[in-house]
Amino acid sequence: MSEDTPSVNEGRWIDRRGFLGAAAGVVATGAAVTSPFAFGARSKAAAGCAETAAVIPKARRGAIHYTTPAQAWNTTAVFQDFITFMKNLECNAWEFAGGYPTVDGMSLNNGTTRFPASHPKWPGLSGWETFGSYAKTYGFRLVGTHDGPAPTSAANLGSALTKMNAWGCNQLGAGGGYPSGAVNLPNAGTAITNPSAISAWQASAHTMNSWGQAYQTNSGAGVLGVTPYGPGVFMGTALTEGRTCARYYRHFHSEQGKWIQNTGTKYDNHYISELIYTETDPDVAYAQSDQCWLLDGLWMAGGNAPSVGLQGPGDPHPGQGKNRLVQPDLMERWQDSVFSFHIKDLGAGTAINDQGTSVCNVGDNAGPGNATGNFPTDALPSDGWSTPNPYGALPWATDGSQDTVQFQDIYERFRHPECHEYLFERDGMSNTVTSNAYWRKLYVQAFDMYDKLVLDRSPGTIRTPFPIPSTAAEWLATDWAPNSVPYNVEQYRPAVGDVAPGPECPPELKGGYAPGKANVGQTLTIANGDAAQTWSRFDPLTDDVSYLWLRDGAPLPQYNGAPIGSKPECECDAGSSPQYVILPEDAGHWLSCQVTAVNTEDSATSVVTNAVYVRINNDAQILADLAALKSQITAMKLGSGSTSQLLEKLAECVLLVQQGASPCKKLDELSDVVGKWADKPPKNPNLISGAQAAALYSSIDHIRAEYPC
User: Fold this and answer.
1) Which of 187, 191, 194, 588 has the fewest CB atoms within 10 Å distance of its CB?
2) Low-confidence residues of the chain, pLDDT below 50?
3) How many CB atoms sit inside 10 A of residue 45's CB?
4) CA nearest 329: which of 121, 201, 509, 492?
5) Do residues 147 and 128 touch, judged by C-beta distance below 8 A?
6) Which pLDDT score, from 0 to 100, does residue 254 have?
């Protein structure tokens, strides 16, 4: 880690109110502050503030815990280590699909059983509420779960809303299979040619819409079937309201790459995923794209799809040819309808199967973990990793040679990279447990790729928005036929435009009582967030800037789960403001801000400011230590001149603390007074001896560190 990147604060207090508690409150005083998690340190500006490449926003980087092994988090202590590890990787968005941590003997996927009221850490809290408290305390988000439940009854709806409320989460869905019964989905290599399959998929999307509406309205009335029911009920209690920004989602497997032809519908010569993206209302529901399965599905699309089939001699199975070219084009077109992506790869090598369920992964060669690795302390940002690599990890090759899914080619095209979730998934993570380091190895490799992905915001890379077709004529004008050999890399892309703003001089976070430090109640402000020196290709007359405030690297809890999409009040930059008044619950945490510039073509770039630490109010202890320092000075029986000056300056420190202000500057002046009298000629009766000066310096430095200054 770089010198200006904070490391882990292992002594962090726990916010036990979770997301069901009050929005603000006085933070419990914890241990003396050590260093925090790794986040918020902005990239150093290039010389002269030249434009630099953007990166995938770290607030949106995350993982789906599908095959995370139990030994990673099955006790309170081990789970704490897991959090430390994840936050050092800056894994800030967590999705779940079956496996959950265990704390004090209780699974955190539990909404009915509660800890006893006498429990010292979690009095009366359910597993869901406890998990929400962990997320709030340590700066990660619980962004969704494949464990539903689908709101097909009042009880299911009540359970789903209770879980979302406890987690501060807006997305609940399922891992696979689309609702509305059997869907005519042909076998691999066969295109969809039956109009009834189109109708079935449309009905499936409409069912997802109704379930998302139920989440938002707290009732199935008017949207669920022919017999509406009342508000969601959980454990016999009706919930009073839904979640405004909630969405129902389904995970897209290889079916998203299926080809449609000869159905007589407007969707002919398109992929089935495009139907779902159109028929699903993004304000209430969406389809989550697994990039590994998408590539697999494109290869098996069937019919005359431009991506179909093996691509040539020497290409691994499945092909690394036209399907890898179609995938970025498809995602570029429909990016505004895909809110979250699973970052998973088929891998490279001989031990890979079609579905990507082998233990290989981005940057991995199927080798076991290395238990002797010590990530991140042996990481060398300038030239990769030291030897041995952390947990036997293999650094990601930036030329894409290790990857079947071309992540760089896909994500560099996004107009709003700050509005998607990027969730790493590895099937089989617990199937080859050669050591408890194996899952760590996979995470290190994946997040090494996150760090190295480059988002070039220049012309030709970021295109104008794709006009979403509506009429049959518009769909025909945007179809994927005729095929071209070789594949025409420009045929299916939107037009070149003014492109996104580019980051130059990073905006700075100002405020607080000292650089990088602030008190509760103070106001933080973004300096020069939209100045000409901050962005290339930015017009202050037409372009806009938004602000997403971060706590410990993740969006503040007040954002209600970091909304995604375009529904009013649920945009990914909802609640934007260049100023933030520090709340009591921010004490003990680090605050920063993700600043995003957006132009008139709806293309954006984000940068993160420097981080500011919010001190925990320990004024009572500071006053006690200042009183002890006064007694120390008096006991030295110094001359009247030095004693009076020391006590006068000390009294000024006390007054500032009593007024809720920082004593740091006055403590510096107090040290200067010590130095002044320690330098006097030996015959001066006010002389402070070397030993006395050392003792006073030590006491003053202790108070400075404790405040902290």
Assistant:
1) 187
2) 1-46, 312-319, 348-383, 386-387, 433
3) 16
4) 492
5) no
6) 85
